[in-house]
Amino acid sequence: MIKLALISSALLIIIRVALFASGSATPGAPPPGTPPPPACVSPEFRRFDFWIGRWKVISPEGVQVGTSEITRAADGRAVRKEWKSARGGSGTSINYFGAADGHWHQNWVGGDGTILHLHGGWEEGVMILTGKSKDGQGPIVNRITWTPLPEGKEAGVDRLQR
Question: Which letter does DSSP use for residue 152 in this model?
């Protein structure tokens, strides 16, 4: 599935344009001797599932500026993002729920040398991760939000503050 995203230097808006087909089944009792499911099936570990998929990232002017592919990783305990810029750059993040501290974490490494360590969680229907970093102009506070929208869409906003 392909999704669309709108991006600007201080604002990232992602809109999912494809709907996931989903079926539902009522799970039965596990067979005798089956180990219990891993703790990562609890709702806290599934907060980023709406983000999973392939995305086209589109500027407000309608130009594709890159693609992102979001997948589950580490046997379902993490979510990985692979970013590819239309200009040839790239980046990767690993996102995971830390059961010990009760927060979501994101570690981002960009091909341009950008390193981000963000943390946060689910607040009033929105995933919010924040963290501090530096660039050539000084310190930056990064705040990224992801909001699931009706009909399988999703909006994300990336704000940088000096």
Answer: G
In whole angstroms, give the CA distance from residue 132 to residue 115: 10
pLDDT tens for each residue of 64-86: 889 999 999 998 899 999 999 99
Contacts of 93 (CB under 8 A, 6+ apart): 80, 81, 83, 106, 107, 108, 109, 116
For residues 92 and 81, the answer to whether their CB atoms sit within 8 Å is yes
- Tokens encoding 123: 């607040």
Among residues 115, 4, 124, the alpha carbon closest in space to that of 57 is found at 4
Q: What is the pTM of this model?
A: 0.71
pLDDT at 14: 37
Q: CB-based contacts of 68: which residues, under 8 Å, 6+ apart?
A: 5, 54, 55, 57, 81, 82, 83, 84
Farthest-apart Cα atoms in the chain, separation = 61
Using DSSP's 3-state secondary structure scheme, residue 8 falls into: coil
Q: Are 47 and 63 in contact (CB under 8 A)?
A: no
DSSP code at position 10: S
Residues with Cβ within 8 Å of residue 34, at least 6 apart in sequence? none
Residue 30 per-residue DSSP state: P
Sequence ranges of the domains in the chain? 2-19+39-156
